[in-house]
Amino acid sequence: MTPIAPPRGTKDLLPDEAPAWEWLHRAHAAVAARFGYQLIDTPIFESTELFARGVGSGTDIVDKEMYTFTDRGGRSVTLRPEGTAPVVRAVLGAHLDQRWRPVRVHYAMPMFRYDRPQAGRLRQHAQVGVEVIGERDPGCDAEVIEVAWRFIADLGIDGVSLQLNTLGDKDDRLGYRQSLLAYYTPLRDSLCEDCRRRLDVNPLRLLDCKKDAHHVENAPLLGDHLSAPSREHFAAVTGHLGDAEIPFTHNQRLVRGLDYYAHTAFEFWHTSLAGAQNALGGGGRYDGLAEQLGFAPTPGVGHALGVERLLTVAVDQGIAPRAGPPAQVVICTVGEESAATARTLARQLRDRTSVVSDVSDRRLDRKLRDAGRSDATLALLVGMDEGLVLRNLRTRQQQVTTSDRVLDAVSAELLAAAQDPRT
Ligand code: HAM
Questions:
Q1: Which of 66, 151, 321, 415 is the right S-S partner for 31, CB 3.0 to 4.6 Å?
Q2: Nearest residue by C-alpha to atom 9 in ligand 1
Q3: What are the TM regions of this chain, as residue ranges (predicted)?
């Protein structure tokens, strides 16, 4: 029988990569907490309607990439492709905005998008993100960018650029839509198949096409259709970013792949990530989303960053922490009758450090070989004629000790090893 392979476009988190994964999640949660964000989590599956109405039919995510199925009760459900619509549903559904406003939440969640897998594009990926719900002040737009910026800085990732744009309000976009249609309709026959579809269902997305990039270059700009209040909102956001000393590029072609955005939209790009997959993260303001989901109109803004893409860059730049040994001490028994003593010693030693016991009937040299490979610092040999033997696996020095003294001997050896630059 052939061994079962993982589903295409998925990635296991193996123990070697786990410390980098934990480091990244801790860093995001820590920065978010310093800005007053609280943890939230939502179900991995939701009613399909949440995303059809929230993210929008006509987006690639909803039209082509959702994992949608009918459950045994005949309901259409979808594996979460993104976190903003579920978080808004959860926060407003629980009336959290009626206690205090705005509600600040952060999350770390897996997402599912049925896309063609390639470097940086998975069918299951994870995002860390924040949402501020219940406030339209442009200071919040700048705040969610600042949280992401500090997070990236805390990780120590270099070479990230902030691409910033404004998508105006609904009326601005209606006007802009007309001028996009006027520009693109005569070009219809020369457009790619996707763009012909976008022309009919979602003209703003025409700007995101890589194939028809030459048309995008000459397309009208949304910036020319902004009302005075939209301009003021954007000016206030850029002013706050200036105060926070966060550099950005005003990228007038940035449109984002989700329909709920209004006003601020942004992405964090990294040059080392190839082509269309160069965004480490993105976000923006979504003042119309709550209403789309059937709640009272409630403004919101947030960011989300791709965990796997961040880790790829962090590993390339040599800043991701590497896995340490599973345990500092390996107890290796010699002879069956030593197993009980080994277990007692392990129990006592675990007050001070991490310990595994190898009570198998394998030969001692095999046990020591594997203890060395696991990068443990010490091996404690139980059942030797001379008594308890404590062996430093790095220097290969060993000492004979007794059950009364073994705890202190282990502590002293671990301290010495931690201070020894050679080990
Ligand atoms: P998004 O730009 O679709 O935004 O996704 C955020 C990030 O998730 C991307 O920049 C990328 O790093 C990562 N990502 C997306 N798709 C994949 C994939 N197939 N494979 C690997 N990584 C991927 C959102 O989802 C919005 N909910 C962000 C937001 C929060 N807006 C407001 N608040």
A1: 151
A2: 281
A3: none
